[in-house]
Automatic annotation (TrEMBL):
Reaction(s) this enzyme catalyzes, per UniProt: ATP + (deoxyribonucleotide)n-3'-hydroxyl + 5'-phospho-(deoxyribonucleotide)m = (deoxyribonucleotide)n+m + AMP + diphosphate
Coiled coil regions in record: none
InterPro entries per the UniProt record, alphabetical: DNA_ligase_ATP-dep_C, DNA_ligase_ATP-dep_cent, LigD_ligase_dom, LigD_PE_domain, LigD_pol_dom, NA-bd_OB-fold, NHEJ_ligase_prk, NHEJ_LigD
Lineage: Bacteria, Pseudomonadati, Pseudomonadota, Gammaproteobacteria, Pseudomonadales
Name by which UniProt lists this protein: DNA ligase (ATP)
Species for this entry: Pseudomonas benzopyrenica
Keyword field contains Transmembrane: no
SUPFAM superfamilies xref list: DNA ligase/mRNA capping enzyme, catalytic domain, Nucleic acid-binding proteins
The EC number(s) this enzyme carries: 6.5.1.1
Cofactor: Mn(2+)
Compositional bias annotation for Basic and acidic residues: 8-26, 525-542
Length: 852
């Protein structure tokens, strides 16, 4: 008899475990077409993998001790266990001690599966042949029941990979070792549980690496190489990592060929002539050809790298003081090492330097020998900028990804603006801000310059704001000297700004400052250097504060002149984002966002008590007193209160003050509201589908639009899907535009029925992607570009260039606290040219889709 989910419920105490309860549902759907599958990595008494296939409304489940193998010769034992509810497919977390299956669980892979023939019949007969379409496992597989008797009465099966183009020899590639982590989160095993000692914290940061067996391959040395970049994280993740110093210098790639050495910065500039001694030291290693990766630094008296000292070395011509710390070797003597695990590449590099290097200018970047849970604290105590973590077993990738991470000893606080420098190059209005802090005696001291973090519009706004504050003499007791400061425009010390910075020098000069916005919520006389509170004192203060009643006690804040009440109210528990953070986000992205809102009716998703509470969808202002918002002519929407428009930074922040998280807009502007100026296809996937299917689907829809000669622009939804935005010339009315979008959706569903659906409803979307054309009706709205989403972690709907699609990792890849670095790094607007597109739904285009 097949195991049942009643047995699942019987084995668990749901007052203790967070696993989902199986709610008996007599209307469970039968197996039909593609269904979901999930593989959960389970660190219980023994690490194993739970293989689950959706069938007859449940997840048929097998415990696979060694995990799946892509090698057809590896027949993996699969012990059948009780059926699990469908909701279990997204479960990650810790099952408490004393409970059935106690241990940690992550979703190692998930996607859809398709049986060869009738799934129920194959399962009952004990031989189930099927295709997997997951993020890690794809291709054809077989589950076959054996007559073997194990240590219990549980049926034993074999999980076998069929021979196809997805099969791989286990000696060359072990998928469980090569890809150990969750596909839902950043979690890995062992162990993710809270409140117990983790395996990561009981070992040094150089543990036994995973058994990844990728080998070097012969290859010609490429002329150029882009560096692998690290992703900023806020704490050390679980799993097996090595940690190195985050050097405070310049990244440098060394190209060696035929004894000739060339040194390149990350941006591709040739610095060989600036570093001749370092180039000669590299040539003396005697390599035929290689690419080496590292950082050039100058260490201070305490052995800590100092960016200021490095700058001085270049300015004084003393390049012989500059050390080149090497930490990776992607190519060596005709071999491409990029697929070789990072720890093996580093071992080769370390041995090379030990055997062949006689120069003090070349150094090996050694790993920390500190427990993972102390790694950042140790780095900060040493005065380092931070640490770089590298996942053991990972390859070298010429892009930013999560196999390399960085943890920074960062700082952020308010400063007083006391002046600005003139603009240079292509910048207008002003160059950098000069900032200051009060000392303990109340005197105002110069604290450095900040020249990054601004948009062009922000520079213009700041320049106008500063004009009434101009004074002739510097307001600080120790104004900076030198030619660079002769053209400073000095200001009354009244305006505050918030700055994130890498470090404060001994002279209390801020370095690597980034402007994060103006502040009006504190008097300038109170602003001094914020000293860190000892941990025990901070913890005591936190407990003391938690015992005090908070109602009515929070001080209001001000963002861009708009008052924010209850600024500390938590909007999103997952990220800890506060109401003030939401307002600050919208202030920071206003110059990018406002063009997408211009003269366009807007609807708000308000979450006054946070996204876990009631979410209010509001299309009309009604009696809500939203600061600075503009109302449209009531005749545009007869029978209702006036529609709203947000057309200023103040109105945008005012909406945030009233609890707004999401902004949704019409497909028409107020001046011609009956003639849409765009249509949108919203690709909304079944949550069980892997992201790779989402990317594939988006490219197919773009191909259809290309065939119709319609230019489309891509943006993430910030949730699960993708939006394709097609600008129009405003010649057709709502009915024609909606009919065209519906015909496009239906064409996709008819042509690729296993991938696309054109009907609403979860039952129609199972294993497929719903092409939502209903966004194109009169009065319908779609979340705006650069809007936050009222979902855990506050993802953002982000415009992307079409060529970025293949590198996208998720729809909520950018969130409220990670989008600004992307915007600051952009060289071109991903939607450049949108406003110049002139195209319409011509009769010929409508005829091709069968639209009357």
């Amino acid at each position: 008899m097949a195991p049942s989910t009643s047995e699942y419920n019987r084995k668990r105490n749901f007052d203790i475990t967070a696993e989902p309860r199986d709610e008996d549902n007599p209307r469970r759907r039968k197996a039909k077409g593609a269904m979901s599958f999930v593989i959960q990595k389970h660190d219980a008494r023994r690490l194993h993998y739970d293989f689950r296939l959706e069938l007859d409304g449940t997840l048929k489940s097998w415990a696979v001790p060694k995990g799946p193998s892509l090698d057809p010769g590896e027949k993996r034992l699969a012990v059948q266990v009780e059926d699990h509810p469908l909701a279990y497919g997204s479960f990650e977390g810790s099952i408490p001690e004393g409970q059935y299956g106690a241990g940690d669980v992550i979703v190692w892979d998930r996607g859809e599966w398709q049986a060869d023939g009738d799934a129920a019949e194959g399962y009952a007969a004990g031989k189930l042949k099927f295709e997997l379409r997951g993020e890690k496992l794809r291709g054809h597989w077989t589950l076959v029941r054996t007559r073997l008797q194990g240590h219990s009465d549980k049926p034993q099966w074999l999980l076998i990979k069929e021979r196809d183009d997805q099969a791989r020899d286990i000696a060359d590639y072990d998928v469980t070792a090569a890809e150990p982590d969750s596909v839902l989160s950043d979690k890995t095993l062992p162990r993710l549980g809270q409140g117990k000692q983790t395996k990561a914290s009981t070992r040094s940061t150089s543990p036994k690496p995973p058994a990844r067996r990728a080998k070097a391959r012969k290859a010609e040395l490429p002329e150029t190489l882009e560096a692998q970049l690290a992703t900023l994280v806020d704490s050390p993740p679980a799993g097996d990592w090595l940690y190195e110093v985050k050097y405070d210098g310049y990244r440098l790639l060394a190209h060696i060929e035929g004894g000739e050495v060339r040194l390149f910065t990350r941006s591709g500039n040739d610095w060989t002539e600036r570093l001749p001694e370092q180039a000669r030291a590299l040539a003396a290693l005697g390599l035929d050809n290689a690419w080496l990766d590292g950082e050039i630094v100058v260490n201070d008296g305490q052995g800590v790298s100092s960016f200021q000292a490095l700058q001085n070395a270049f300015e004084t011509g003393k390049a012989t003081r500059i050390a080149y710390y090497l930490f990776d070797m992607p190519y060596l003597n005709g071999a491409d090492l990029r697929e070789v695990p990072v720890e093996q590449r580093r071992e080769l590099l370390g041995k090379l330097l030990e055997d062949s290097n006689d120069s003090d200018l070349l150094c090996f970047s050694a790993a920390f020998e500190v427990p993972a849970d102390r790694i950042l604290a140790s780095a900060c105590e040493l005065g380092l900028e931070g640490v770089i973590g590298k996942r053991l077993g990972s390859p070298y990738r010429s892009r930013r990804n999560k196999d390399w991470i960085k943890l920074k000893c960062a700082h952020r606080q308010e400063f007083i603006i006391v002046g600005y420098t003139p603009p240079k190059g292509g910048r207008q209005h002003l160059g950098a801000l000069l900032v200051a802090l009060h000392d303990e005696q109340g005197e105002l001291h110069y604290a450095g310059k900040v020249g990054t973090g601004f948009t062009a519009a922000m520079l213009k706004q700041l320049h106008g704001r500063f004009q009434p504050l101009i004074v002739e003499r510097p307001p600080v007791v120790d104004p900076p000297k030198g030619a660079a400061y002769r053209e400073v425009t000095w200001l009354k010390p009244e305006q505050l700004c918030e700055i994130a910075y890498a470090e404060m020098t001994q002279d209390r000069i801020v370095r690597q400052g980034v402007f994060h916005g103006l502040r009006d919520d504190k008097p300038a006389r109170e602003i001094g250097l914020e000293e860190a509170t000892p941990a025990r004192e901070a913890e005591a203060a936190r407990h003391s504060a938690s015992r005090r009643p908070s109602a009515g006690k929070q001080r209001d804040a001000t963002v861009a002149g708009v008052r924010i009440s209850h600024p500390e109210r938590v909007i999103d528990d997952a990220s800890g984002a506060r109401k003030l953070d939401v307002a600050g986000y919208y202030a920071a992205v206003a110059d990018w966002l406002l063009p997408h809102l211009a003269d366009r009716p807007v609807a708000l998703v308000r979450t006054p008590e946070g996204i876990a509470g009631e979410q209010i969808f509001q299309k009309h202002k009604q009696t809500l007193a939203i600061p600075h918002i503009r109302e449209l002519d009531p005749a545009l929407d007869p029978g209702h209160a006036p529609l709203m428009v947000i057309d200023s930074r103040e109105a945008l922040i005012g909406a945030a003050q009233m609890g707004t998280v999401e902004l949704h807009t019409w497909n028409a502007t107020a001046d011609r509201i009956e003639r849409p100026d765009r249509f949108i296809l919203d690709l909304d996937p079944d949550p069980t589908l892997p992201w790779s299917r989402m990317v594939e689907a988006t490219e197919l829809v773009l191909t259809l639009l290309d065939e119709l000669e319609l230019q489309a622009f891509v943006k993430t939804s910030g949730g699960r899907g993708v939006h394709l935005v097609v600008p129009l010339d405003r010649r057709q009315d709502w009915e024609i535009v909606k009919a065209f979008a519906q015909a496009a959706a239906q064409h996709l569903a008819n042509t690729l029925p296993k991938l696309f659906a054109a009907k609403m409803g979860a039952q129609n979307r199972q294993g497929r992607i719903f092409v939502d054309y209903l966004r194109n009706r009169h009065g319908a709205t779609t979340v705006s570009a650069f809007s936050l989403r009222a979902r855990p972690h506050l993802g953002v709907s982000v415009p992307i260039a079409r060529e970025e699609l293949s590198t996208l990792e998720a729809s909520d890849q950018w969130r409220f606290d990670s989008l600004l670095p992307r915007l600051e790094a952009l060289k071109d607007d991903p939607w450049a040219g949108y406003a110049k597109v002139r195209q319409g739904l011509t009769a010929a285009r409508r005829k091709r889709l069968g639209v009357e």
